[in-house]
Specification:
single chain; 305 residues; three-stranded antiparallel sheet; 45% helix
Length: 305
């Protein structure tokens, strides 16, 4: 019987680190992982999400679906009941490893009618309603707090930049010895806005800084498992080893891919390291490894130089 793990985050700024920790502590044997693309909203019905659909297609009777907490999978009463009906239909078990639902057998059915036990349905609806109430209260409190702040003269959102008409005065005051903090208070902007206005006057500023390229941002690429297996046996630079060690494993049938998050330069270095998979002098290439390397090369080559 297979252990099917489902993971999801609501925005592309979030990570699955907490889910990974809970699931790792659960000691799930040989997990088959299905992870939604970052930013998959909880508002989308679980049965309409791509990866959960793949999980249900992959599943066989007797398999167990594992999630870190219920709200990674569902949102609201009807979502929960719809999912439980499908799991019951397909003879799948559900195991939740953290939160209010973790102590319950949500797939328990009446021995004669086969319907979801009334006590389970009651607890599911009660806990789901409590979760929705908590989120609604948080939104209301946030809204009230913003309104109170606005009534006191504060404004939400990013603080404004220095107005063009005031830039000369700010620069002159800074040259006269006025501090950045004092100028920020005087003009009701952030300290960062003042630093931007006087950037070329700051002590550590140099002309070369203006022409310096913007730093590379990390990019997530799926590395074929055969490439990852080879690189793990290869001597790597610290940044390369860190990127590899922190990669997230995504099961693909009998194999897997490693979801690696790193700056493009590190991806290119890792690609160069696995060049021998194309075959070296006197050592023939293994077709599957060569195919995996070229697949990874196509993904790395698609990155903007």
């Amino acid at each position: 019987m297979a252990n099917l793990v489902y993971k999801r985050v609501s925005t592309d700024q979030q990570s699955t680190a907490r889910q990974d920790l809970v699931l790792d502590e659960a000691g799930i044997e040989e997990p088959v992982v299905f992870e939604e693309d970052p930013g998959t909203s909880s508002r989308l019905h679980p049965l309409q999400r791509p990866k959960f659909g793949e999980l249900l297609t992959y599943a066989r009777p007797g398999d167990t679906v594992h999630i870190s907490e219920m709200f990674r999978l569902v949102r609201g009463n009807q979502h929960i009941l719809d999912v439980l009906d499908v799991l019951h239909r397909d003879h799948l078990a559900l195991r939740i490893h953290d939160g209010a639902f973790s102590a319950m057998d949500l797939t328990a059915r009446h021995p004669r009618t086969g319907e979801l036990l009334s006590t389970v349905k009651f607890m599911v609806q009660t806990l789901a309603a409590a979760g929705e109430l908590q989120r609604d209260l948080q939104r209301e409190l946030t809204s009230d707090g913003l309104r109170a702040a606005e009534a006191n003269g504060a404004k939400g959102g990013r603080r404004p930049a220095v107005a063009a008409a005031q830039t000369a005065d700010v620069r002159a005051a800074y040259l006269e010895g006025r501090s950045i903090a004092a100028l920020a208070r005087d003009h009701r902007v952030s300290r960062g806005a003042i630093r931007t206005a006087v950037a070329d006057l700051l002590p550590d500023h140099s002309a070369a800084d203006e022409d310096a390229p913007a730093p590379e941002l990390p990019v997530t690429l799926d590395m074929p498992g055969k490439v990852a297996d080879y690189l793990r046996t290869t001597e790597l630079e610290p940044a390369e080893r860190t990127a590899l060690d922190q990669g997230a494993t995504v099961r693909r049938g009998q194999g897997y891919t490693l979801r690696v998050n790193a700056v493009p330069a590190v991806h290119r270095q890792l690609l160069a390291r696995c060049q021998p998979l194309d075959g070296a002098q006197g050592v023939p290439a293994v077709p599957a490894q060569r195919k995996a390397r070229r697949e990874y090369e196509n993904r790395v080559s698609a990155l903007t130089p």
